[in-house]
Amino acid sequence: MSAGVISRLDGPVTFLLPMRAVIALALLAGLVAGLLIVSLMAGSYPLGVREVLSTLAGAPPSDMAGTVVWQFRFPRALAALCAGALLALSGAVLQTVTRNPLADPSLVGVSQGAGLAVVAAIIAVPDLPTALRPLLAFAGALAVAGLIQGIAARRAGGATMRFILTGIGVAAFLGAATSALLTYGQLDRAMAALGWLAGSVHAAGWGDVAVLGLALALLAPALVAAARPMAALRLGPEMAAGLGLRVGRVRAWLITLAVALAAAAVAMVGPLGFVGLVAPHMASRLARCGIGLHLALSGAVGAGLVGLADLAGRSLFAPVQIPAGLFTAIVGVPILVWLILRRPAGGQP
Amino acid sequence: MTGPILPRRGPASRAAPLAGLAVLALAFVWHVSVGARPIPPGIVAEALLAFDADVLDHVVIVDLRLPRALCAVLVGAALSVAGALMQGVTRNPLAEPGLLGLLIGASFAVVLFVGVLGIAPPAMIPLVAALGATGAAAAVWGIAAAAPGGATPLTLILAGAAITAFLGALVTVATLLDERSFEELRVWLTGSLAGGRLDQALWALPWLVAGLAVALGAARQVTALAMGDETAIGLGMDVGRLKARLLFAVVALTASAVAIAGPMGFVGLVVPHAVRLFAGQDYRRVVPWSALAGAAYLLVVDIAARMVLAPVEISTGLVTALLGAPIFVWLVRARL
């Protein structure tokens, strides 16, 4: 259980490492790398493994191959992987903090809040720099998270259940508001927003990858710092308080962190559903381990999921592109149903 | 069962239905008179009572506005009664055709038949929608009942959300794959009265009337059922058959509403709860009042959908969601 915990015994420092989790993480990293290569190969201009590798090494076999890989496929694949990792981490943090297996940024409306903020901005100020989108998304998502917490947590008892139901209601409201904005906005602008709303990475360029990578790089240290309080929160709020944690404040910070993770992803690729729900559960199926490794595993699973969804979305029905968000929904719903069937969902009413 | 469950009101209860009908008529005339070309209510009444094909306003009213208003009345009444029945039978304040997946099931079936298979005789659409609604209802109920703790409000809503997300994604995939044949369906899929599909409404009408008739006929038993299966059995009711009849009513009403106007969420949630505030818990009053109030509600909502951002029109289904979702959240807070 104690991943990464250094226990000072009498002798030399010992380090307890759950082998299964580490192996799973290594395998996942390999799979994601393989997925990256495959998504660089696949498309209307197919490339072989060797061509892709030599292009990546800086010696493209043809100009065409260089353009296709560097301009189109590589940023798109990287954006998918980063967004998947961000959403999965957000879901993992939310599930740990709320102690609710169903917490997912898209199920409870956090993603939709980010989406509404960004769509409103796109329609009001069409030439808004894309780098500002994450901030807007963060503001929108944070407002929604605060609203849901405020509505759901005011009364004692059954708070987790109300949290989910409130989130579903808020998500429906925000979805309708966003659609109404789209009908109001001029059509060409609305179309740009519409493709983005389905959760799609098809227009991703290096700018998006830079923003996503920056978000990942900035928020990862915060996650590392949050690992210890999260490990305590996993034991329940009473136990965490007993361990000397200021539960209320820590929880607020962690929810803000989860919202920031989701907002960064949503701002760039739209509200991809169910990744934050599915990835942490798949991770804990792969290996039971401490919170640090669990987060890493979740991130890797999320990256793989979205990468796979994007690859499937652009190759299954080519030349039609199916947004990755639809595939993640189709994969995610059976897992949601399994979660509903498996346990008294979201605690006791 | 001879004594009334709730004390009957005095003379006021005789005047109330008339007042309700008057409100509905007012909403109807208001709905017909507003639009891109405002028409005074006097001319509306004139067009309805003494139609003259030479007057442009009369033609606009009868050919364009009247179908839309009639559709709003039918859809509003159907969805509200369906919602009221579902809340009574499942004893769940949050039950509603949209939240429990019936609307998306019906829409999915219609999309599958009209868009993908290319079969679109208007007579078939209510039937197809009914099949889809039944399938989705069965799936949602099955998931919720199999969950530990049984079909609680939470498991029902979660299962409904899951089915809605799943079928919604499939519908979007279908529309993306074949954009041309979905041109018309796309507006319909957000819940819209804009088409004024009176031909469609005519085919859906028998279903709607049958559903309403069953609902009104069974209203007395629903009151008993809402107090628990044991109570209903103790009162000598055949609960299994009653539930089957009510399921038929709910599915027929939902399917005809979807066939006319597409999925309109939250109507079946908002209206019955509002009705209970003044009509009490007796379904003999709740069902007819829901039909009346639902019709008036959707007329007013449709006016808002057309006027708020004029000349742009918002899909009516979006406005019902914008109004209904906060009420859902409030119900979650107040009742659970």
UniProtKB/TrEMBL annotation, chain A:
Gene Ontology terms, MF aspect: transmembrane transporter activity
Bilayer-crossing regions = 21-42, 74-94, 106-125, 131-151, 163-184, 204-231, 252-279, 291-312, 324-341
Q: Which InterPro entries match?
A: ABC_BtuC-like, ABC_transptr_permease_BtuC
Signal peptide coordinates: none
Q: Which domain of life is it from?
A: Bacteria
One of the Pfam families matching this protein, by short name: FecCD
Asked whether the UniProt record includes Cell membrane among its keywords, one would answer: yes
Can you cite an annotated GO cellular component?
plasma membrane
Please provide the Gene Ontology terms (biological process) for this protein: siderophore-iron import into cell
Q: Does the keyword Transport apply?
A: yes
Where does this protein reside within or beyond the cell?
Cell membrane
The alphabetized UniProt keywords are: Cell membrane, Membrane, Transmembrane, Transmembrane helix, Transport
Major site of localization recorded for this protein: membrane
Topology with respect to the bilayer: Multi-pass membrane protein
What protein family is recorded? Belongs to the binding-protein-dependent transport system permease family. FecCD subfamily.
Q: What protein name applies here? A: Iron complex transport system permease protein
Native species of this protein? Wenxinia saemankumensis
Q: What is the lineage of its organism?
A: Bacteria, Pseudomonadati, Pseudomonadota, Alphaproteobacteria, Rhodobacterales
TrEMBL record, chain B:
Q: Which GO terms describe its molecular function?
A: transmembrane transporter activity
Instruction: Please name the Gene3D superfamilies in this protein's record.
Output: ABC transporter involved in vitamin B12 uptake, BtuC
Annotated Gene Ontology cellular components are: plasma membrane
Q: Which CDD domains match?
A: TM_ABC_iron-siderophores_like
Q: Which residue windows are transmembrane per the record?
A: 66-86, 98-119, 125-147, 154-177, 201-219, 246-266, 286-305, 312-332
Biological process (GO), any one = siderophore-iron import into cell
Q: How would you describe this protein's topology in the membrane?
A: Multi-pass membrane protein
Q: Where in the cell is it found?
A: Cell membrane
InterPro entries recorded = ABC_BtuC-like, ABC_transptr_permease_BtuC
Q: Which UniProt keywords apply?
A: Cell membrane, Membrane, Transmembrane, Transmembrane helix, Transport
Assigned protein family: Belongs to the binding-protein-dependent transport system permease family. FecCD subfamily.
The protein's name is: Iron complex transport system permease protein
Highest lineage ranks of the organism?
Answer: Bacteria, Pseudomonadati, Pseudomonadota, Alphaproteobacteria, Rhodobacterales
